[in-house]
Amino acid sequence: MKLIKIKIMCWYSYKEPIKKVAENDVPCFKVVQLNDDGSLVSVYFEKVYKPKRTYKHKNIMPKKVNYTSKRYFSLIREGLHSYATDVEITIDNECSMIMVKEFVKVSKIPLWFSNNFKFAKVNCIIPKGAEYYENEQGEYVSTKLKVIGYEEIDTENICH
């Protein structure tokens, strides 16, 4: 049986999205796959990230998606996705999920991988002057993202 990876990474918000421009560098992080050769690869789009590099995306635009006649949420699929530094993450290899926890809210992000994958927390900044959006779960999507460094995530101690 062939494993098919569905490539979706979506930022969403139930509030009206507000475009911000970083007045200072905004600390953030990504969770990526750490390959045996040391390469850092995004889980959804298989983009390779390297320390000390700045990545750019031209434009990010929220789209309104109606889920009832009177309710909607905003969605951004493109751009450079990351998490605020105070967001707690848990990687659940049994269910193949990364769970992002902030306060009581939990955003379960499904992944398609075998449990022997290694992960890294990539420390980043959204550079001063970059445009970005932030949602209720502490997720960012931005036009620029600079990779500072990374550390391997000890999945033995954080997986449920």
List the helices and strands and how they pair.
Layout: E1 11-13, E2 20-21, E3 26-34, E4 40-42, E5 48-49, E6 54-56, E7 63-66, E8 72-76, E9 80-84, E10 88-92, E11 97-102, E12 105-110, E13 118-126, E14 131-134, E15 139-142, E16 144-153, H1 155-158
Antiparallel strand pairs: 1-8, 2-14, 3-4, 3-9, 3-13, 4-5, 6-16, 7-8, 9-15, 10-11, 11-12, 13-16, 14-15
Task: Please explain how this structure is put together.
This protein is 2% helix and 50% strand. It is mostly beta strands. It has one domain. A hairpin with a 5-residue loop joins strand 4 and strand 5. It is globular and about 50 Å long.
Oligomer: single chain
Q: Can you write the helix and strand succession as a string?
A: EEEEEEEEEEEEEEEEH
Strand content: over 45%
Tally of structural domains: 1
| N→C terminal distance | 27 Å
- Average of per-residue pLDDT values: 77
Class from helix and strand fractions: mainly beta
Largest sheet: 10 strands, antiparallel
Total beta strand runs: 16
Proportion of helical residues: under 10%
Number of helices: 1
Query: Uncertain runs with pLDDT below 50, 5 residues or more?
Result: 1-8, 101-110
Shape: globular
- Radius of gyration, Cα only, in angstroms? 16 Å
Key attributes of the depicted protein:
globular, mainly beta, 16 strands, 160 residues, ten-stranded antiparallel beta sheet, three-stranded antiparallel beta sheet
In a nutshell, what does this entry contain?
The chain has one helix and 16 strands. The chain is mainly beta.
